[in-house]
């Protein structure tokens, strides 16, 4: 399988290090000439330059990259795995990606990202869900560059502080680098409006802690994960990068779980 990637950040580097070969990489135009001499990968600036024989593209570059490159990749009949699923909180983009996939007879696969138990939520949805709540906690440095900065002094924070309380659509839209998990939970469960989200900066922790609780016809469950961040990006959990590799592996397996 010829696999290409979008982005060259923390998640993309992890994913590439776990793939035998990467065929092509879509990067920002300013980075086209910046490849290290040892890196022989074909670097291109947009989806129209991705070679025709590419079987699968992997988006590890965030919401704007999925919006920019996703529709053409799918229209060209190339399957796409994305970790930037918070971008789907934009109903217009959601519809555009869906239409592109139908037109190209391709599929957009949503990596599970930094959370687990989405399989449980999807199954529970069949019987009917009553409440779904997601709580995202990160150390203060994980919220730098986000709207948390407008309500909290992240450098001097002493106590755990809630800086967002609302629904998954608002969270995914306002926190494109931090609330993709809220979108993953919404898409697997009761949708963007009904999924309750709280985001917390917590100086007493050194992990990205995600908690998911649901009740419904099936009963109830709570899932909690303490995820280590990737060494080169405190915002992104290592599990998010691992989930992309797992999604690629699943797509190539004869028997999938
Ligand atoms: N689903 C989940 O649980 C998670 C999802 N994410 C998403 O993954 C994204 C990437 O995370 P990291 O690798 O840690 O971030 P990063 O900041 O280390 O890397 C992002 C890379 O994307 C590139 N990029 C941005 N826009 C681009 C465009 N239009 N075309 C080509 N390249 C572009 C940047 O140059 C950079 O190399 C985050 O922005 C976030 O939206 C991150 C963590 C968890
Ligand atoms: O990596 C994480 O822990 C979660 C994250 O940034 C996101 O949901 O966008």
From TrEMBL:
Protein's pathway: Cofactor biosynthesis; NAD(+) biosynthesis; iminoaspartate from L-aspartate (dehydrogenase route): step 1/1
Family: Belongs to the L-aspartate dehydrogenase family.
Other comments on record: The iminoaspartate product is unstable in aqueous solution and can decompose to oxaloacetate and ammonia.
Highest taxon listed in the record's lineage: Bacteria
Active-site residues (renumbered): 210
NCBIfam families membership: PRK13303.1-2, PRK13303.1-3, PRK13303.1-4
Keywords assigned: NAD, NADP, Oxidoreductase, Pyridine nucleotide biosynthesis
Keyword hit for NAD: yes
Binding positions (NAD(+)): 114, 180
Residue intervals of the Aspartate/homoserine dehydrogenase NAD-binding domain: 42-109
Ranges where the Aspartate dehydrogenase domain occurs: 158-245
Entry function: Specifically catalyzes the NAD or NADP-dependent dehydrogenation of L-aspartate to iminoaspartate.
Gene3D superfamilies: Dihydrodipicolinate Reductase, domain 2 (3.30.360.10), NAD(P)-binding Rossmann-like Domain (3.40.50.720)
Name the UniProt record assigns to this protein: L-aspartate dehydrogenase
Catalytic activity: L-aspartate + NADP(+) + H2O = oxaloacetate + NH4(+) + NADPH + H(+); L-aspartate + NAD(+) + H2O = oxaloacetate + NH4(+) + NADH + H(+)
EC number: 1.4.1.21
């Amino acid at each position: 399988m010829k696999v290409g990637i979008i982005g060259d950040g923390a998640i993309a580097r992890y994913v590439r290090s776990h793939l035998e070969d990467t065929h092509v990489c879509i990067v920002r135009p300013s980075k086209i000439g910046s490849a290290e001499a040892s890196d022989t990968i074909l670097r291109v600036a947009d989806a129209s330059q991705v070679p025709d024989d590419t079987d699968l593209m992997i988006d590890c570059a965030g919401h704007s990259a999925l919006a920019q490159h996703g529709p053409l990749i799918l229209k060209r009949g190339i399957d796409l795995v994305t970790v930037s699923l918070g971008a789907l909180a934009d109903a217009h983009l959601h519809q555009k990606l869906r239409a592109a996939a139908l037109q190209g007879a391709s599929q957009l696969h949503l990596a599970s990202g930094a959370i687990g138990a989405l399989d449980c939520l999807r199954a529970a949805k069949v019987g009917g869900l009553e409440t779904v709540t997601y709580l995202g906690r990160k150390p203060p440095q994980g919220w730098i560059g986000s709207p948390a900065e407008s309500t909290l002094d992240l450098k001097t924070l002493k106590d755990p502080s809630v800086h967002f309380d609302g629904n998954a659509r608002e969270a995914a839209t306002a926190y494109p680098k931090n609330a993709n998990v809220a979108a993953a939970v919404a898409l697997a469960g009761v949708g963007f409006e009904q999924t309750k989200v709280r985001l917390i900066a917590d100086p007493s922790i050194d992990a990205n802690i995600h908690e998911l609780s649901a009740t419904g016809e099936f009963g109830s469950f709570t899932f909690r994960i303490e995820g280590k961040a990737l060494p080169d990006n405190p915002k992104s959990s290592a599990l998010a990068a691992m989930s992309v590799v797992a999604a690629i592996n699943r797509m190539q397996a004869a028997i999938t779980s």
